[in-house]
Design brief:
Layout (H helix, E strand, L loop, with lengths): L1 E3 L2 E6 L21 H13 L4 E5 L2 E5 L2 E6 L9 H10 L3 E6 L6 H7 L5 E5 L5 H7 L11 H14 L4 E8 L9 H7 L3 E6 L13 H10 L6 E5 L1 H4 L4 E3 L5 E5 L2 E4 L3 H4 L1 H5 L6 H6 L2
Parallel strand pairs: 1-4, 2-5, 2-11, 5-6, 6-7, 7-8, 8-9, 9-10
Antiparallel strand pairs: 3-4, 11-12, 12-13
Organism: Ruegeria alba
Cofactor: [4Fe-4S] cluster
Protein name: S-adenosylmethionine-dependent nucleotide dehydratase
Amino acid sequence: MFRIPELTINWHILEACNYDCYFCYAKYGQKSVFSRHYVEILREFGALNNRRIDFQNGSAIAESVRINFAGGEPFLEKDLGQAIALSYDLGLRPSFISNGSLLTDDFIMKFGPMISVAGFSVDSFDDEQNRRIGRRDNRGAQVSYERMAAIFGLFRQVSPNTLLKVNTVVCHENVNDNLTSSLGELRPDRWKALRVIPIHGATGRGITDEEFSSFLDRHRDMPGKIVPEDNIDMHRSYIMLDPDGRFYQREGSDYLRSAPILDVGVATALQSIEFDAETYFSRY
């Protein structure tokens, strides 16, 4: 049995996004019911702290639980702030992963000290590359380097204990880039380089082993913790929850899903999924 200092639950609270990245894997065909059920589901998660958790293929004890609010774009959800506050009150460790475009200074000032990890999806700071990826809204607006630097600076001012993370999907558009300078100036605590998954809009548009390896070599002098993730590293090593409150895992181009937490409880729902605790632990 693994003892895990912190178990992360990635809750994709909605599919909707103001961006249109072609490689996005968050395609559930479901409308979000988050605002109706988040209180009950978060209370279920609050009972997992320092408890034995049984999975389909083994067990683990999580000393703490982090709820990572994701999407789509989680800042489209009007109740996100209230959910972060409730998670914090329940002894959970709330975090988010966002494209940053809808995050306001007021939100950081109010909720920043409650947030354990603030994660941002950054594939490029080149306008044309972001346009080709789809990393812009329907008016063509993108998050500039200057705005991202301001966000990082404000978090460090009001919430110095919040870890700042950047996720980069390594894809055709940026595989030959060198982000060392711009990310080096941002100084994220963690930088995750994820190899594009060739499903949905990225079908037939994967990158080669050599391209991915070269990208990582080019960034070997990056400051902070670098976490490379090939497609195989993601297999069964994430615990993901869909907008309906069901755990899910990718199976080819489709998904396997548990029963809804609201019907069977979180402990029973977790028993129906596989989880590779060893691979998960290696990322941290």
